[in-house]
Design brief:
The protein has 274 residues and is of the alpha+beta class. It contains ten helices and ten strands.
């Protein structure tokens, strides 16, 4: 990423990179489909029925070719430009999305930057479920952002407009494009079909030592997916020294996750869908 792209991301909270992985999108799609085939085709090992989102946590971790995306100079360039040379890889999820996804943020981080790199594997337009973002909605503490945070879910009552009518940028994509956005950035999708293919990589700045409990608290969220370690074995077993550097801090702080996951299994009928 060049300096203009970094400034764009800092200001607006997202960036689109058309065709960035076009040269290997066939391999990526093959890996995506292989993971689903090996896990029953849908959510929790059952076929995807098209009535609700299917989700697999630790997604790219399951497939050696997709693990290698974390070594790709283009992905590393994004990660280091936005989260520093010592960034943390924070996990992945793979999805078959169904229908609309309402406005939300993936986190609300006031200090450390967390980002999502999203890969959409079908052509998508504003009417068929492409990602929509509200530029600038990541800037916590500013009046515009705080207004959205308070009232976006009540948009019809508060502003007289429904979700699809909210002023936003529709990021229409083709397979091979890459989208990147700040976890704080408000985003949504409307008009999607019943098998919209998408997977993500989550990354963040390295946590300072005095904030390691915050890191552990973040990792605790993985329990709802019934995962007992932050990474699947394949990701670690195939790791280069460079990749291990970006796994080290999380691996050193996920020891509490197994017990939380076991407790979640006792309370939930299935792992979380997102």
């Amino acid at each position: 990423m060049d300096e203009q792209q970094r400034r764009f991301f800092d200001t607006f909270g997202y960036i689109g990179l058309p065709g960035l992985l076009l040269d290997c999108i066939g391999e990526i799609i093959d890996g995506f489909e292989a993971i689903w085939a090996e896990n029953g085709g849908g959510h929790a090992g059952r076929p995807h029925e098209g009535t609700a989102r299917s989700c697999i946590a630790q997604f790219l971790d399951h497939h050696e070719r997709l693990c290698a995306l974390l070594d790709d100079p283009r992905i590393l360039g994004i990660a280091k430009a936005l989260c520093g040379d010592d960034f943390n890889y924070m996990g992945s999820d793979g999805n078959y999305y169904v229908g609309d996804t309402g406005w939300h943020s993936d986190g609300w981080h006031r200090q450390l930057r967390h980002i999502k790199i999203a890969f959409y594997l079908d052509p998508l337009t504003k009417d068929t479920g492409c990602l929509r973002v509200i530029p600038g909605s990541h800037r916590i503490g500013e009046g515009y952002t705080e207004e959205l945070q308070t009232n976006l879910r009540q948009s019809r009552d508060h502003w007289g407009v429904s979700g699809p009518e909210i002023p936003a940028i529709a990021l229409e994509t083709q397979p091979g494009d890459v989208l990147v956005f700040n976890h704080n950035t408000k985003h949504a999708a409307f008009g999607g079909g019943t098998r919209r293919r998408m997977f993500t990589m989550n990354l963040c700045e390295r946590y300072p030592d005095d904030k390691l409990q915050e890191l552990r608290d973040y990792l605790s969220g993985g329990a709802r997916f019934w995962v007992e370690r932050a990474y699947h074995d394949t990701l670690v077993a195939t790791a280069t020294p460079e990749r291990l550097r970006h796994l080290e801090q999380v691996r050193a702080n996920d020891g509490h996750l197994a017990e939380l996951a076991r407790a979640a299994r006792e309370k939930m009928n299935e792992p979380s869908r997102g």
